[in-house]
Write a structure and sequence with these properties.
Oligomer: heterodimer
Strand content of chain A: over 45%
Strand content of chain B: over 45%
Number of helices of chain A: 0
Low-confidence stretches of chain B: none
Helix content of chain B: under 10%
Structural class of chain A: mainly beta
Distance between the termini of chain B: 41 Å
Largest sheet of chain B: 6 strands, mixed
Radius of gyration of chain B: 13 Å
Number of strands of chain A: 11
Number of strands of chain B: 12
Helix content of chain A: under 10%
Shape of chain B: globular
């Protein structure tokens, strides 16, 4: 299996622009998680899905953030409008017991 | 809600020194415990996990961890570190739901 696949690996954008991050989980995994990693706040759980249904989005920082999982093989995390404080590495992970992480999407908002 | 504390934020060791990284969690029920490692510029990888059974868990690359329920601890150990162990180490806990909550991480620097 190719593992969890995220795109883009790097994104540089200007404040106010829309950002869409994508994730393809490992086939057969029922759970998908989005995490954000920053130096100041460490690894924060943003949202997780079970069988494509959002279960807990209490970690989503603001209404500017939204996440979807239209099918078992694809999820998106969208930030609209983006702000400089959203700069971070965003990880997607999937799994039922242990989690398998993707390579991450490094977002820089200027 | 569960939480995780890692008390050592930065650790510097020489090669062949022994390592112990502290991890304490807060949750009153049954927990699953994990240690992940993140090498510079890379994603998180699982080192070891505890679900049940023997509280001494052995993982990859010579790492082990001991679950002490009475102390709510899950410390990571390695008898002799190598330069290649330089990385950030995260303890994580899952209890009562499928949410995996991470500690703040410990940055380990191993000097050759």
């Amino acid at each position: 299996d190719a593992g969890v696949i995220q795109s883009p690996r790097h994104e540089v954008t200007e404040m106010g622009q829309e950002v869409t991050l994508r994730c393809k989980p490992i086939s057969g995994h029922d759970y998908l998680f989005w995490y954000r990693q920053t130096m100041m706040r460490g690894l924060e759980l943003l949202i997780y899905f079970n069988n494509n249904v959002p279960i807990d989005d209490s970690g989503m920082p603001e209404d500017r953030f939204s996440a979807k999982m239209p099918n078992a093989s694809f999820s998106t995390l969208k930030i609209q409008p983006s702000e400089p404080r959203d700069s971070a590495v965003y990880f997607c992970a999937s799994g039922d017991g242990e989690l398998f992480f993707g390579e991450g999407s490094r977002l820089t908002v200027l | 809600a569960q939480s995780v504390s890692q008390h050592n934020h930065h650790v510097i060791l020489s090669e062949a020194a022994s390592l112990e990284l502290g991890c304490n969690y807060s949750y009153g029920g049954t927990v699953n415990l994990f240690w992940y490692v993140q090498y510079p510029g890379q994603h998180l990888q699982l080192l070891l996990k505890y679900f049940s059974g023997d509280p001494l868990v052995k993982g990859i690359k010579g790492f082990e961890a001991e679950f002490i329920k009475s102390k709510f601890s899950f410390n990571l150990r390695k008898p002799s570190v190598q330069w290649s162990d330089t990385a950030e180490y995260f303890c994580a806990v899952k209890g009562g739901s499928y949410k995996l909550i991470f500690g703040s991480g410990t940055r380990l620097l191993v000097r050759p």
